[in-house]
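Team,

Forwarding the record for the chain on the shared tracking sheet. I've put the sequence and predicted structure together so nobody has to dig through attachments.
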Amino acid sequence: QITTLINHKDKPKRSDKTLQAIQRVGQAVNLAVGRFVTVGEAIANENHELKEEMSVACIEARRAGETIAQLTDVASLDHPESDSHITIFTDKTGVVKAARLLLSSVTKVLVLADRIVIKQIITSRNKVLATMEQLEKVSSFQEFVQIFSQFGNEMVEFAHLTGDRQNDLKDEKKKARMAASRAVLEKCTMMLLTASKTCLRHPDCESARINKDGVFHRMRLALEQVIEIVTDSRPNGENEMAPISIYSGIKEFKNKVEGLRENLYFLSKENLSTMLEVILEHTEDFTDSAYTSHEHREHILELSKQAKMELEQLVSVWMQAQNQKTKDLMEDLEVAILKTCQCMNELKREVHSAATSLAADLLKYHTDHMVLKALKITGVEGNLEAVAEYTCKLSEQKEQLVEMCRLLRHVSGTEPLEITCIHAEDTFQVTGPQIISAAETLALHPSSKIAKENLEVFCEAWESQLSDMSLLLREINDVFEGRRGEKRVYLSLPRPGKHNANLKALKPVKLDTEEQAKIAKLGLELHLLTSDVDSETEKWGDQENEIVQHGQGMSSMAYSMYLFTRGEGLLKTTQDLFHQAEIFATEGTKLASALHTFSEQVHDDDKPLLLLEAEKLISMCKQLQITAKASVQGKSATFTKVDACILKTRNVMTLLCQLLPLGCRLLKKNKAGNGCLKPAPPWREDRVRTATNAHTPERRAETFGVKSLENHVTNMTFLESK
């Protein structure tokens, strides 16, 4: 609104409509500032240490808002008596000054409010730490119950505060780190309860004490990491050194190599050689691993050798081209660039295959949890020798899973997924020894119900992490295959000279700011629908189901079209959007075909409704294709076509939100007695997804279960009565 006021054109003739519009904008700004300042003043009254600063900023903002309202009070300009009235037309610099003051003061209010939120989180963390110290020192069960009830309430408060903060974070990397820390706190809350109870019941048991100390230590680390993220600081002023993955190394290396097309002098050959050397050092994580197959190891070594040779050839041609820019040399340089990039792509594909195939094999092998079951049985029997044997097997399993996480991190494709891999590695590293100490405690006290319960809790944490790894592996594969990225954009974009011969003849057009504003509401509706469709596809047990995959593909494409309305994402021009709409319509037709095939397998009263909706989907997709392919000329006609494409895409997504739950319901009804329908996978789909998500991307962000914490607190009433 402020930009509209400042950028308005000074015309000699001003219609009543223009004057009224300017006055409305000025009043709207003033009202918005008034509401904003009211909240700021309320915050100031609750936080005395910042009250003065906040009050000054609020007064400045209110004054600026009122000035803008006065300068835009132009409705009475037609009357002679108002000639001396200062307005936006007679003093535009006054509006600019007021706007600057307003933006400056609003920023101050936001920064001060942010400081208060950070302080609240730190205060909440300090409360939790203080209560944890009390819990560590208690000697009676009754005292423990009372203090744990207080601790539970404090953890619920901390969960709410950090949950809001996580949602506000814009940096996907920080958001993923926050999610990981909060997930640790959630799981450790239950572990702390059972581990402490076991220690109280068996105070002389060394393994019980080790088990409890491990939980407290891990919770303190997680609390510290939350504060690091919130305050954007590191202990002792250290800089965070994030490990470099092979994927990110190859991506940066290729960008530098391809940059030689534009500029032959922007980096040195030593820089490129060093970058490749670092990438090849990281491939040693694969070639040195005992779990990498002989075939994968040989291929990686061969491609590493080839990459060195390709770089040598590239450097040779590059140096010649710097001295003499002939046509032949530039062609040779282009060939060398292409061959180097192709080799790096093959290396990337090979390490991805090595990591994901190992992960798939390990997860399949350990899905029965035989070692955990054996530890529970031998622990209850008090068989110390058998427990020792199975703890050795669990340690071996832990080493395998830790190695799997390290290799997956190299090929995860996005920073949030990298952080999730690191979190998974830490979880296996810590939980393995904790299960062992819990099993030893049970073996020493086989009749102890609390020791048995404690072992169950740690085993559940291990099983839950294995289940999460199945989801993580699927997302890593999705990113690699282009189904999802950090912002879940669909990667089927036209390239110059490909897909469509007519693309060259069409002039690419971008939406201007005004057009983006007009289409923003429609784009937002599309965004919300993608979240709904994602939610519905998650409810299907089998994520490899053809209907689910087409639905996910359509949701991904619709999301990229939403990003286009914001001027973001991979769809840069209107032609990109039209091409995406065509592919979206094709995918919708395929989904309708899959629904027809599915309907032949089911026998239910809702089957005719499913077929009717599928036919409706085909019709709507055809209409969208016709619109997307229609030829238009001129800016106005192009925008109308954009609007029509997004509107029809929204309508298809709305229908999809009705079709998917209907299909899922039919699937569940017919599943029990129908062998031809695919069974659900053995893991739980209990990960909360965000569309920021998607959450962001980060769409895998682990969420702190406030309700589960509240349940822990409620259960304490029962414990106290016992």
